Please model this.
Amino acid sequence: MSLTRMFKVLRKDLALGPRSPIFLWAIILPFALTLILQVAFGSLFAAKPRMAVVDQGASEITASLEKMDGIELTVLDNPDALKDQVRANDFDAGLILPKGFDDAVRSGEKPLLELYIGGESLSSNRIILSVTTLDLVRQVEGTAPPVDVRIENFGNEGLPISVRLVPVIMMYALFIAGAFVPSSSLVEEKENGTLSALLVSPVKASEVLVAKGLLGTILAFVMAFMTLFLNKALGGQPLVLVLVILWASAFSAVLGIVIGTAAKDSASMFTLVKGSGIFLFAPVAFYLFPEWPQWIAKLFPTFWAIDPIWQVAVLGKGLDAIWVDLAVSLAIAIALVPVIGALSRRMQRKLVAE
Amino acid sequence: MTEAAIKVEDITYSYGDLLAVKGISFEVQPGEILGFLGPNGAGKSTTIKMLTGQVAPKSGVAQILGADITLDDPAIQARIGVCFEEKNLYLSMSAKENLDFYASLYGIKDPDSIEILRRVGLADRAKDRVKTYSKGMRQRMMISRAFINKPDVLFLDEPTDGLDPVTSASIRTTIKEEAARGAAVLLTTHDMFEADELSDRVAFINDGVIVAIDTPENLKLKFGKRSVKVRMRDGSGVREEIVALDRPDSGDRLKEVVGSGDVLTIHTEEATLEDIFIQMTGRGLVG
Model:
């Protein structure tokens, strides 16, 4: 196999991509799905409340705010700069803590607390920041709240629906870009006869198939990564995340090559995709409905490629939690290689007979 | 003696139970154009598919430039050019992009795609997508693609099929130039005039078998009639007379006819390649 020729074919496919409706669909669909689902269930545009603090005396309040995941905190040096930036809506609120503030609170002096609210800030953010600030002052004061609060959880315990939808969008991103793009590209080459033209040049069939597979892998990787980014589900281990996305993308591309070599034309390719859809997409339903018996999801091959992404990106787990998934999906991919070989030979025989 | 560019010995190929090519043998020398004539389904395209490495012969030997074509050697593939009957171009790419891409597959670093397109009259449309081309332009594009690697062996499958006379003549000129450069050309066609004009030799293939292979001239001499048809004024009308050229009194009779002053036209009774094909196989070249 010549890598040079393979990359020439890949470069041509990448250049032709933006001229193909299926390629564009593969790019647009995950973005569109993310947008629709986030608008319906999530908080794509609901950024964290932004607060600026000028702390002139190493207050406990600043330390507590820094530990809060739900607030985007910026510490500034200059009170005037803080006011200017709140006025310019760079922050939802600005807090100036004078020197000795904590001691003054503890001694019951009731010192002045300067809290500036941006005029364009959302009401929800104003409430969150105001209440949080007062609660922290009370903590510094060391007094108990004036009421007892009883908290009861309603609804099912677990991740919110907006998070459980991530595998659905991820699956689309991976398998439309990773499987559908290379299979349709291959089928298009067959239908237009350009595959025959390639095969009488020095290019070998294996080089064409690897190029198509790489096309799917690259596109699926980019789309899957973007999907996770948009859904704020990048986990805490970037290298492991890149590894699992890359592997799932390659796995999708292998499935795409199987479909592309098996399909005679576009009609039979769509039939194959529709027919195999249940095997491709069934596992994501089990993320949506965690009360279902989860072992059933493991019967579907794509589970073993998508689950590592879920584990790393959403649950924040590491390689030790996913190595079985990776091993099973690798075994499935290796088992598909001879299948692709046989389908490729059959494809070439059919090309000649036509 | 130079080595044959194409050497075929007793090759066969079958589609399932149907034996499409039944043990044919021939050679094509560098710079020679061999016309492969036969009706649809005679085995022409299957022979080209075997010789271009798309399919392996079931038996026999097929060599291109001295190498066994079944070995699928990229070095040999790099020295052949193929013009398919079906127009299989990347329609979303421009003509120049098509040629540049194929040139890159042959390892050609700076292809002179524009010059090649100029040869087939497409230089001024080089940057237009092929999908905007007419049928004739696409066919010229197909020819130019086959030339991109300056091949030593050219396979041209019906290169002028369905084209207007001007485009056909232009393509035939280009094919002759390639042969003059030294390329061995295997040309399949069922156009007898094209085969006659271009071919140094022609092979008649029918039902998977080569029934004759020779120069067009020899075939015509062998199978044609040695006579002329004379049209003469006859009073107020016109009459025709066939004058044989191989009889002892042929010369005297021709002198007499010409001397009468009534001759309107004289035509040789030379057989066309189609006539010869029909004589040999009982069927025409078309259909």
Notes: Chain B has a mean pLDDT of 89. Chain B touches chain A at residues 15, 49, 52-55, 72, 74-75, 77-78, 80, 82, 84, 86-93, 97, 101-102, 104-107, 145 (CB under 8 Å).
